[in-house]
Amino acid sequence: GQRPGDPQAAESVDVRCRYGQASGVEMSREVLAPGASITRLAVLAPPEGTSAALVRTSGPSLWSGASADRRGMLSAGSELSLGVHQAAFESARTRLLLEPPAPGMPAFLGAVALARMGFTRRAEDRLGRYWSRVRRDGSLVGDAEDAAALAWATAEVVRWSGDSAWARGHQKAWMRLLDRLARDEPEPGGRALFGPDGSVRFTAIWRAAGLLTSAEALREIAPERRSDWALAGGRQRETLPELLGPAPWTASPGRAVDGSAAAMLTGCWLGVVDVDHPGAVMTARRLRARHWHGGGVLHSGGAHAAATALLAGVLSRLEPQVDWLGAVASLASDTGALPTARHPRRGAIGEGDDLLGAALFALLVLDQVRVLRGRLVLLPGIAAARNLPTPHGRIDIETTEDGARRVQGRWRGTPPEVLVLQGPGPQRVPES
Hints:
15 helices; alpha+beta
């Protein structure tokens, strides 16, 4: 919001609906103190000729109908209860359930988060529509990293859902895309994070992950070809240390370290770079020491939610005693929505409910359930869950009266070893 005395924007205000559903706009002017918020509710009459079955003419009926719709939508997925940060998680889940405006890496990450929250059909339907955009030559219109991100997301959905039959329906397009990823040199991507020049390094990270995870997912579907993609992905992963250059890592050679360097930690999230790699550790430490402002990674004018989540994913493994999940949740508004960035005085910057930030925060929460070489490890962040997907089957989590947590599984194949980490919750993030 604007404060008294702040300069007024010279350009006109954009009042277009990003989803193309609004037919009008109401504008008002208010003076808000720093940190304050405002909420308005409007109940509009339906257009003439609207079916009586669709008309909700009163406030109570509108509210009850909307609540019933929400309950029906959420019933398709898993129930998940956190000890803290529940409001931010529920807001992120709602944002991901909304139809994304366009295909791209944020939408693909969101689909994976939905599948891991139990909304498997919705995630598969969404990715299926994206696969229909793959051309005959294996290319995909979009940012340079989008093709590899789509391959990775599809492999992850198959991994967590176990639904290989759905993957077979997109096998031909998937194989064409992988062949192109293995053949072509990466181009600069991630322009939303790095600016117009993008980053070849960022695209290369995604390509290694997309090829390797897809090769594993297609083990039984395309056994005669999977070794080609595994070898191509392995070669790209081996070249990443040299490509990323000396630490701390940046988007490109010669670029000064700034908040965008958090995106170079994407490889740790995707499993193609070890979390304890010296370059990753040094990059994370530099961001925390010199580019932490307003409770998060300084980027795009404020504490950037997505960049903070990427950094938190690494620091949560290096410093598991600290509540790095809370660092991301603290950037949310009073409604729980995560903006693109948040400034201590100016408030939200960019999107008020950012898709990439919501997807990464949801995945950060879901990573409280980790799969490590046939073992299922449950971290302290999840208090209770029902019908939560894992690569080994669905699990229920409950917390007993004495504070202990128990896991009950409905396994596919051989049951994994389950390790439940008890103990005190994580500490607050210390001031930098």
